[in-house]
């Protein structure tokens, strides 16, 4: 009878033996970045590896997702190990795609390398004989919430129902057979104090696409005949800023609008001005409260200038809740790699992820691990330490799967027994669908 520790050792040795190909996967994806719902080549790379490992898989899930399953010898829970396929748009990044500006400035290439490394370790050692339950290797699309108009068009054309990958996969039922899900996000010493760690929670959000419609006129000759949409937008930004003192500290509200179109020509009174914003907060109620204040600010600005404002509200991600029992397993396993001092508890995170949506339904773990250099979403970001960035996540994912499914999956069953979902899948879908709203408010009537 193999002990848990000897199984883990075998798998880590198998991963070490494939170090070169795991690093090559991470680096080659770094050099072929693709934006969300367009990750065709990255998905091909994933499929090629699954084929080499003899793992059956489904593909084309939420457009580009790929899901393989490794079945244990006995029945038990299904643990999904996840890696995100998509890049960001950072055109100034030295390894950005010349045509699209896409760049792996958030380390998702390392997630795929880690996921496939874990798949190599778990499939090549024959240790499934000792597991009760299944391991799903899930390459998931479109985590970054970007190109909002492109994705809204996908929704309008019926290609998707939501704007990010895990939301779409939940709606498609692709997590119905998954009991818990684990992924590891890269970080760097430049942004994270501890090399390895996790926040208990992070913010959720919704997004708004805003268009002020005024009236064009000659800016020098007849400005009095125009309605200046840029002035309305400026008033709206001031009114949103005036709300900030009403946001409670404990709700961690972050509203960060940008102007995406400021006018057409300098000698014409701006007739169309566009903004985008996220409204983020720690709880769903705080998001709704802050979003209501943003709407009021937009309406007020439209009334002041006598123009129209169109507000398209789109569901973002729900707040992340990291499962504390999975977190403890992560801490113990990473201690084997980075030493006990490597791990740090992080505070509540201001950012957001669609792993948050999933964490409302099943136990989820979304920690960070070092290996990167530079800052996320910036031109200097890359995986500098290949062992920490690519190999350590592969080993940690594989070791956690063994912990959860070895010995009759007693740990996996314990995680499930103690977990309380925040909402059901149907409630989740209703809540997110209820956020979609298009409003046209006439401040001039
Ligand atoms: Zn990311």
Structure in words:
The protein is an alpha+beta fold and 445 residues long. The chain has 2 domains: 4-201 and 319-428, Aminopeptidase (3-Layer(aba) Sandwich); 204-317, Alpha-Beta Plaits (2-Layer Sandwich), CATH 3.30.70.360. Helix content is 39%, strand content 22%. The protein is built from 12 helices and 22 strands. The protein has helices at 4-17, 19-30, 40-53, 108-124, 148-156, 165-171, 229-242, 284-305, 324-338, 355-359, 386-418, 425-435; strands spanning 57-61, 65-71, 74-84, 88-89, 102-103, 132-140, 180-182, 185-186, 196-198, 201-202, 204-213, 254-255, 258-261, 272-281, 308-315, 320-321, 343-345, 364-365, 368-369, 372-373, 382-383, 437-442. It has a 6-stranded mixed beta sheet with strand order 1-2-6-3-7-18, sandwiched between helices. Strands 11, 12, 13, 14, 15 and 22 form a 6-stranded antiparallel beta sheet that branches. A 4-stranded mixed beta sheet has the order 8-19-9-17. The chain starts with a helix and ends with a strand. The relative contact order is 0.17. It binds zinc ion (ZN). Zinc ion binds at residues 106, 108, 143, 185. Zinc ion is lined by residues 106, 108, 143, 185.
């Amino acid at each position: 009878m193999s002990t848990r520790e000897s199984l883990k050792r075998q798998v880590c040795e198998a991963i070490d033996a494939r170090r070169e190909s795991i690093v090559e996967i991470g680096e080659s994806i770094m050099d072929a970045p693709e934006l969300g719902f367009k990750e065709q080549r990255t998905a091909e790379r994933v499929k090629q590896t699954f084929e080499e490992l003899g793992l059956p898989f489904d593909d084309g899930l939420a457009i580009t997702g790929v899901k393989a399953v490794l079945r244990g010898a006995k029945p038990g829970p299904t643990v999904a190990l996840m890696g995100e396929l998509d890049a960001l748009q950072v055109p100034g990044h030295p390894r950005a795609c010349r045509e699209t500006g896409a760049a792996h400035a958030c380390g998702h290439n390392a997630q795929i390398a880690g996921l496939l490394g874990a798949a190599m370790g778990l499939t090549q050692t024959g240790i499934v004989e000792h597991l009760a339950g299944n391991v799903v290797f899930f390459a998931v699309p479109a985590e970054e919430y970007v190109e909002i108009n492109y994705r809204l068009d996908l929704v309008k054309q019926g290609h998707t129902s939501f704007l990010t990958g895990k939301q779409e996969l939940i709606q498609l039922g692709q997590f119905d057979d998954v009991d818990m899900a684990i992924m590891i996000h890269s970080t760097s010493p430049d942004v994270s104090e501890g090399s390895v760690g996790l926040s208990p929670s992070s913010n959720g959000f919704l997004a708004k696409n805003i268009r002020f419609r005024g009236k064009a006129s000659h800016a020098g000759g007849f400005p009095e005949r125009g309605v200046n949409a840029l002035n309305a937008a400026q008033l709206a930004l001031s009114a949103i800023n005036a709300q900030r003192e009403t946001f409670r500290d404990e709700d961690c509200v972050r509203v960060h609008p940008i102007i995406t179109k400021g006018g057409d020509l300098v000698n014409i009174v701006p007739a169309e001005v566009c903004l985008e914003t996220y409204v983020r907060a720690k709880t769903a109620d705080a998001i709704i409260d802050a979003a209501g204040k943003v709407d009021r600010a937009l309406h007020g600005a439209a009334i002041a200038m006598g123009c129209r404002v169109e507000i398209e509200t789109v569901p973002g991600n729900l707040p992340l809740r990291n499962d504390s029992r999975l977190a403890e397993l992560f801490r113990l396993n990473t201690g084997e790699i980075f030493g006990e001092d490597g791990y740090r508890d992080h505070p509540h995170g201001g950012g957001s992820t669609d792993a948050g949506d999933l964490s409302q339904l099943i136990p989820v773990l979304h920690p960070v691990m070092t290996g990167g250099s530079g800052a996320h979403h910036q031109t200097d970001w890359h995986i500098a330490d290949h062992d920490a960035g690519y190999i350590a996540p592969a080993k940690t994912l594989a070791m956690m799967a063994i912990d959860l499914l070895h010995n009759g999956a007693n740990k996996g069953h314990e995680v499930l027994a103690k977990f309380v979902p925040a909402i059901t899948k149907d409630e989740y879908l209703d809540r997110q669908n209820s956020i979609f709203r298009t409003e046209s408010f006439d401040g001039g009537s």
